[in-house]
Amino acid sequence: MCGEKSTSCWYHLMSTNDIYYTSRNISNRLSVVFSRTLASAGKELKDNFLKALAEREEANRSGKMTSIIFIRDHNTHGQEVSGYIDYAHRLKTHDFELYFSGKKRLMPGRLDLCYYNWKTRVSSSNSSPNFEVIYDDPSGLLFKNMKDNKILHVDPMHGVGEDSKRTFLQSDLYIHVVIFDHHIRTV
């Protein structure tokens, strides 16, 4: 079928590549549209935490601000877990429509900035495109913003850092929630 002088193989290869590039182009366009559409738009949010996330969604999607979410709660197995989530990164990698509609709960996982399961004592820390985790500093756990190299302190006994703000929230959905906002300065 695909001999040296046969052109049918060439056309088949070209059409396969065209389909591949076309579908890849469409998926890239959809991801751009997805990133510009606010998942919280049109939702009637009752919980303070979800309202706070909705208020920060556009700024985190646009890159004007990066937020770190600290959550402490029980997972589906009843085990207490806690962790720090890079909100801007999660917005790009997860469908927040599920969280804002109440179909799914936002919980820290092993791939987030920091994660700890209090029963199994499993812990992990991972840097993200927005933050580098600094866990061996004498002053405790720190996050370094990758865009402006400013340090964010999560210890409540310490100031949060330059261009940053700490917000403690009461939530009916979680045991403990804190949001750390870091405003990115544009030059």
UniProtKB/TrEMBL annotation:
This is Cilia- and flagella-associated protein 299. May be involved in spermatogenesis. Keywords: Cytoplasm, Nucleus. InterPro entries: DUF4464 (IPR027887). One of its GO terms (cellular component) is nucleus. The lineage of its organism: Eukaryota, Metazoa, Chordata, Craniata, Vertebrata. It is found in: Cytoplasm; Nucleus.
